[in-house]
Every structure is written in structure tokens, then in C-alpha cells.
């Protein structure tokens, strides 16, 4: 008999843990479907470490947002779509009263959550990944591809190259080397549009997942002799590409990657081969950013740091996690202005806040987050809010910004989103909101 | 034409890298009939041990020796705690056990040594050889050539080991027939422990080569996927088969990646690159239709 | 005492040949179905529906499909997820391109499409056996996923290759809530499971088992190998295809080809082997085990870490979860290589005598 009961007791304990409300009414709860193991675990550790450290920082430094304590619960998704959905459903139950924006840091998971989150009225933040046509908030009220999207990024990278070449790209050749998945394919449409606008030749070369072998692709690049390689990799594909570029003697300072190819985790394993390589980002690296230094002092000083390895503080992805948290907290402030100071926001209120963000340079300076984010102003028909990136370069030891904020060609790219969102609305039978009526 | 040869040679050299991983599979399958899916994870564990120990302050040579010790201990442990208890079970159960082992390693290794991708510097730069580049305008990597040399040495050593040492003969006997080997007094379990140790050593070599090439990180476990088509092409039980299979797969996959997508593009429109993921498998599959036991595999005779 | 066949006389052939010849089994099954159809919808929360029950049923169906192929016909396959992908994308395209097609017909067509693809990739099984075949099925895994990424027509020219499932409407009733979807999936899975149960004891099923046990011997006694093996591939892929369509339509909502990864194929194979090779019930038990285990670990480990004040970081907990998952799989294989279904069988034997020792 005893044997039979053990699992039953465990099950009861588990279901209790599932049901028991862990948040108090005055807490702002963040559901965090994070990942720290598997092929991309190192990236997740840095990002979510930064995210949670900042939430802790706000709690320690100013006792929460206007007195509202920030709480959160993590769930390991392993960067796997099905597990991500399970995590979301599990965390959802606790996010009824109050819900911060959900950051999944996975394009696949955010795709799977788009419909669900809209149904559950929980805002889904996709900072630099996910479904990019959600920029059109009239069709996707609860999805926010905040700061900037793959397409705008591609456009900004092209602009950066153009500026380097005296404003003229006609007759140049650019290779677009990409991870052959939803992530890599998103930017093609923008690259093609830019190519026909700026009259450069575009050569697209896909790399099969996981991308740990790129000899053939780089020999092809050597044969094509492009002026630049724009590079959309993820995980091991990044180091392999840098090494392979070295192998065929392609200059690394003619390679410009997306923001998921430009972190320490991506270049350090490639050793010297990465020197000179450039990548886009919306947040700079380093501890010279005041808020990062302060987090180290306040949060780690109090022994509440989330990272085991303090060396990750100030890395690109750590700072990106902080930037995501800064943005989320700023949204909470904005929401509290409307719905009452000192009260937590539920999903619907959070959604309004994210849609009415206005983070200025002055405000960023106030919170010590200058250069962690560009200025952001969102609205119903623009869930992106910025579209700006910086280009940074790896000098062999650290990432150094080599440009100011560069904005992608909005007039060229945003209509693409609207067209795609319209198609989605038609397929799904969604009636878009009328943005002119939203305040 | 120059380009063709460049791709061909690059492919052959990549193939050697695949063969390095495939060798580990062959060794274990040959001696115990276990299709050890954990070989990829073992490659990861080995490489991670090396960089992890180096991070604790040990020099490269010491780290390699310690990593070898870890791999051997791990192999013996696997034999003792898992495989020995699964003797006489259907092959699929053993196969699944090795997948369980894969998960175990994938959790264990980064927990001990950290999951950050790291560089492994073994003192060879992955750059084109200037002489060939200047005279023939071809890119041949120094690193790949050395890797090929390492593989050649490894195969020769293994072949000699199997052919001429006492243990090697015992191994072959066990591979031929477990029961017959037992009945003439060959200690089966020692032999298996040794095989797992040797496979660990091969994983270490493969891990260091791949790690130096792409960085030491979780993705090293994916190297197994590159090794599987090599394995079916060369035969599960043949050491030279792994090398020949590797060469064929490497070369054909690179040539296919370069020359097939443009043809398909003409036919269907659109971009058809990235066929490397499946091409080796389909090639191996087609090959198997002609020779179901692989190039050098042992012919299997069915008896009712 | 409770579970006794004595006294249940069969007086007609029909009674002797029915699907569940023992009365207690029938009662148990009816009770189980009543709970599943009536009890569960009344009490389960949304979390249970959309995070546990629906994926459990869908993966059970996929595992069932694989079990037909591997457990009954003896052909090891590592390409299950790819056949699910075929099902998902086929259902999407039938819905999209055939005007006014009922969704259930789309699901059936999706299954049939997957069956066709399955036959194609089953052809090598006529020549290749064992692990060679397993690795060869990897060709299906990678090739199919690649095709779905490369032919934009298949995903209605979506720039990312991701498809979003249509709304489900049957006879004017919209299946929107997780509970509705659960009931739909449950009905389909129950039907197909009963069909499978029936099939494996028919001539076809017996032929499969003969081939599994020794195909040379089977061909000697007059079983046509080609037909039998290909039929196994077709039926198995049909099940996987339907499971894939349900996966897209009732579970995730939008899917990308890369989501149907090798990892998923392995997961389904795990379910079959942990559950019990060659057992319909085993597919369900295995799916439950493999799906629930990580969730249990996920909740229990941090709980215990907190209880004993262990200084585990989030990363360490995640790593330990994976380790425990792997270790438990090895443990189960060692303790009961024939799977959970075998445990159930042993339990039944015991029940037959209980409460008496003999």
C-alpha cells in the first residue's frame, strides 16, 4: 500500500504547487519561460540573468515600481516549442491578476504563443525576434516585436554599408548567408527590397541547421567575391562561419551579422578568427553603462544575483536582458500612470502600456540605461517603436560600438509588414482594430 | 575546374572530420553490437573536459591526459552500471539506453564545466596554406590537413591494435560471437570496458579536432548527425569503412551543395541551398539499396 | 477475485472474437471513456487541457503510429516527426486550397498524404534492416523538413515558412476553447486507437508480427513481404499524419517545419519503448510518462531545492532535470525492458488472484 501512495502524495504536492497562489495582490508578476540548457543554453543564461537581475535591482533599489514589488517565476523551455507552450500554460494561471510582458527569446515559441496570448489577453514581447508583421498592432493587439525587427535590422545594416561606400551601392555584391529556418528567412524579403532599391546584387546562401559545417558555402562565397557578407546565424553556426571565413581568407571586417550573431558567446569560441567582425545590436556591451555597474553593486552586493558566473555581467546578451527588463519596467510605470500608482497591472492594462510607450533619451539617462535602448515610441499601428540599431565591432577582447543609431528604411519595410498582417487577418478571420480610434 | 577541385578537396578533408566521429560508433558496435547514440555527447564531454580542466589552470597536455582518464572512467562506468544490466536485451533497448545516456551527459557535462562556448587552442591556425593559394589559387586548410593526418594515424593504430595485440584479438573474437568468446575464456566484461575506453579516446581526439575548429560547445553533440550517414555507407563494423565512407560523404555532400541547388533553381525557381542536411542520408540510402550491409560491412546471411 | 475470467462463457463466435473478451476490461474501458469524455471536461483546468491532456493524446496517437511500425511490424523508424509534419502541412493546404472542405476530411486527407509519403520512404525497408534502416529513415526526417522549408507554395508563401492553423468548425460549431479541442482530439484518438486494436489482431496484424519475428520465415509461409511492410509504413504514417494535423490545429496553432525535429522523433520513440513495444496501451502509458516526467521534475526539483535550502542556481536545476530524465530512462530500461505495458500485465496477473496468494 505504501508504495502506491508515494506517487499519489507527490502528485498532490505538485498539484498544490500548481494551484497555490504565490503572488500577493500588490505584486507585479512576471511569467518567464526561459531556457538555460541545451544548444542555446549559454545565450539564455546571460539574457535571463540580466532580465531577472534588473527586476531584483528595482526591488532592492526603489522597493519595486511605486511600491509594487516585482515577482516572477521561471520555467525551462529548452528552446523547444512544445515545452514553451507547456510553460506558458503553466505560468498563465498565475498571471491572471497581474502580468508583465512575456519574453520567450525564441522565434518558434513566440509563433506558437501568438494566438494563445491574444486569447488570454497576455502581452507577448518579442524583442528582436518572433513574428515581425506583428508590428501592425491593428491585427496583433497582444504581440509586440519591440525595439526593432529582422527586416528593419537588415535594412539598417544595408544603410550602414551604404554609408561606408559613400552613399552608393550600385554594382556592389552582397551575400546574405543565413540559417535556413524561419529566423533566417524573415529578413530575405527586406534584403530583396533593398537590393532592388539600391541596385546591388544579392546572393542568398542558406546553411542547413545546425550549421557546424560551412566549407561549401564559404568556397562559394570565395568564388562569388562579394563586397560584403550579411550574416544571419544562430548558435554554433556563428563561430563556424567566422572560422570558415578565416579559412577562405575572407576579411572579417566585411562581415556584418544580425544581433543574434553578435555576442561574446558567438565570437570567443572562434578565437582570433573573429577579430574585426561586426554585428548589429540595440544595446551596447560593457559595464560602463551606469545601470549595469549599479546592478553589480546593489544586486550582487546583496548576494541576490541570478548568475553563478559573474563574468557574464556586461556581456552583450546580459545587457540585452537588462534592456528587456528596463523596457518592461518602464511600461509598468506608464501603465500605473493610467491605471493607478501602486497597483499591479493585469495583462490588458500591460498591453495598453506597451502600446503607449514613450521612452526618451532623457528618461533612459535617468534610469542609467543610455545606449541600452534607442528611443522608443509605440502606438497601435507601430508596435516596433524604434527600428534603430547600432553596429558594433569585435576587437578581439570586447565589442566596441562603431556607429550611432541607424534606422532602417521604414517607408520601404513597414508596408511589407502591413501586407503580411493583412494576409494573416484574412486567413484567420480577424477583423483588424481601427487604429485611429485607439487612444 | 580549379573550383571543382577546391570543393572536392575541401569535402574530402571535411569527410575525415566526420570519419573521426564515426570511428567511435564503429568500435562499440563492432565489439558489443550496441549502436551507441551517445557518441556525439561523448565527443562533447571529452572536449569540454579538456577546456574545463585548462580553465582550472592545467596545461594542455595535462588536461588531455585528465580528460582521457575521465572518458575511460566514464566508459567503464557505463559498461558497469548500464550495459551489463542490459545483456541479452533486444538491440533497440540498448540503443534507447544510449539515448538516455546522451541526456545524462548533456546535463552532466555543462553542469561541471559550464555551458559557455569556449575556444580550444591546440596551436594550429585554420588558415589556407599560402604556397598552394599562391600557386594554384586553391584554398586548402592547414588545419584540415593535420586533422586528416591525425585520422590516418588513429586508424592505423587502431587497425594494428585490432590485428596484432592480444586484446585486439580478443576483441575480434568477441565481435564474432559473444558466446564462443566466453566459452574459450575471454572475459567479456573486461573487453567491453576496454572498448568503451578506446571509444572514449576516439571521442577525445574527435572532440579536440572539432572543438578547435568550431569552438567547444553544446553543438559538438550534433557531430553525431554527420557521422551517421558515414556509418551506414561504410558499414557499422568496419574501421577502414568509416574512413572511406567519410571521404565519400564529405566530398559528395560538398559537391552537391555547390552544384545541385542551381540546377533545382532552374527547374523550380526559388533557393534550394542547404541540402547538406539531408543529402548524405539520401546518398547513403540509395547506396544501401545496392549493398544493404554498407561498403565494408559483414554480409548477413538469414537462416530460418 | 475482482479480475476473473472464470464463468464468462462465450457461446457465439462473435462473443469470442470481440475486441475486449473479458467483461472487466469492457467495464473498465467504458468507465475510463466516461471519465475522459464526461468527468475530465467538468473538472480539468485550462492548464490541464492545453498543456497536458491535448499534447498527451496527440503524442499517444503518434506513438501508436510508430508502435504499429516498430512494435508490430518490426521496422525501426526515426522519422516520425517528419511524417507528422507532412500531416500538418497537408491538412493546412487542404483547408486552404479546397473550397469548403470539412476539417475532418482535411485531417483524413492529411493522414492519407502522410501514408503516401510513408510508403515512399518505406520502400528501402524491403532491402535494408535493423539499424541500417533506422539511419535510413533519418533521410526521411531531414529531407521532408527541408522540402517543407524550400517550397514556399506549401506554406502559402509565408516568408518564414510558418503556417497558422485555421479555425476549427464542424457542422457550424466552432471549436475554440481548449475543452472543445480536447474533446475533438479525444474522439479522434479513441476511434483510431480502437481501430488499431482491431487491426493488430486481424490477418494484417498477424502478418506484421510474423514479419517482425523473422521476415524470412514469414515469406516462407506465404506472407507477401512487400505488401505487408509497405502497409505497415502506410498505416503508421497515416496515424502520424493525423497526429501531426492535430498537433498543428488543436495544440500549437502555428507550426514551422523545424519544429518537427529529430528530437521530437526521438521523444516519440522513447514513448514507444518506455511504454511497451508492441502494445497499444503502452503507447498511451509511454506518452504520459515522457510528457509528464519533465514537468514533474520541473516542479519538484526547485521545490526540493527550496525545501532543503540547496544553493542551486536556475541553470543547475535545469541541468539536473535533464540528467535525471536520462538516468530514469536508463533505469526503466534496466528494470523493465518490456515497458510500462508489461508492468500493467503483471498487475493484471496479480489482480486475477488477489486477495489470495495463489
UniProtKB/TrEMBL annotation, chain A:
Residues 36-396 form the Leucine-binding protein domain. Gene3D superfamilies: 3.40.50.2300. Residues 1-25 form the signal peptide. The keyword Protease does not apply. Keywords: Signal. InterPro entries: Leu-bd (IPR028081), Peripla_BP_I (IPR028082). Belongs to the leucine-binding protein family. This is Amino acid/amide ABC transporter substrate-binding protein (HAAT family). It comes from Azonexus fungiphilus.
Automatic annotation (TrEMBL), chain B:
Keywords: Amino-acid transport, Cell membrane, Membrane, Transmembrane, Transmembrane helix, Transport. It is a multi-pass membrane protein. GO terms for biological process: amino acid transport. The keyword Cell cycle does not apply. GO terms for cellular component: plasma membrane. Belongs to the binding-protein-dependent transport system permease family. LivHM subfamily. This is Amino acid/amide ABC transporter membrane protein 1 (HAAT family).
Automatic annotation (TrEMBL), chain C:
It is a multi-pass membrane protein. It is found in: Cell membrane. One of its GO terms (cellular component) is plasma membrane. The chain crosses the membrane at residues 27-44, 50-69, 76-94, 100-123, 130-151, 182-200, 230-252, 264-282, 289-310, 316-335. Keywords: Cell membrane, Membrane, Transmembrane, Transmembrane helix. GO terms for molecular function: branched-chain amino acid transmembrane transporter activity. Pfam families: BPD_transp_2 (PF02653). The keyword Cell membrane applies. This is Amino acid/amide ABC transporter membrane protein 2 (HAAT family).
